[in-house]
Amino acid sequence: MAPDRDAAARMFGLDGRVAIVTGASSGLGASVAGALASVGARVAVVARRQDRLAELAKEIDGLAVACDLSDPDRVGSVVPAVVEGLGPPEILVNAAGNMFTTEPAECEPPDAIRRTMDLNLVAPFLLAQAVFPHMRALGRGSIVNVSSISGRVGVPGIPQASYAASKAGLSGLTAELAVQWARHSIRVNTVAPGFFRSEITGPLYESERAAEYLRRNTPLPMEGTAQDIVGAVVWLAGDAAGYVTGQTVVVDGGWTAR
Description:
- The protein is built from ten helices and seven strands.
- It is α/β, with parallel strands linked by helices.
- Helix 6 (110-138) links the parallel strand 4 and strand 5.
- Helix 6 (110-138) runs parallel beside helix 7.
- 44% of the residues are buried.
């Protein structure tokens, strides 16, 4: 019997499935959106910057939904817009995230703490609630939260208490939703990236001292990129990870394995 050489490819195929990717105006979110579209998904891209979203949506034949996810009152507009434009979503990738202060923990302003939590933790929760009835009706779904190794380990010299707390919260939310919604065949997982170039980490890579610190503490001898994270997200989104739920998958070049 000849081997089915397309079997593995089909496991990663997402033909016709509607996906929502937040934080898609740049960096990891944009890369994830492009990758999901390349394997057949119909992708709605969500972020604040309408001009960048419109360009990306045109490139991937998707839908642009402009929304400031740091405002909880606006988050509720996202899923209805996607349902109207593309259909009911069965994939949600919560890639939007930011930090709004670099002060040490004892000095973090309350407004920065709230903004960080609203964007990094509250918005993913609200979006998960909004896609739930659609995934339940479809009989399947996959939610992938993008966290950070900062939610698992402290990083010396980089003050980020509220950011770390919000990312650790994502892993707790992931485990709880995975258990509650498993009976509906809705899988919920988290990807926790290590350091790679992004709008948040740009200043680190611009400093030779900081860049050397990152190289010295990453076992793999190469610099991480957004594309290194994309594969894990695409895997978790589709049937190849059909029996994986409630997990936090670390993609960090070995940083947390030291």
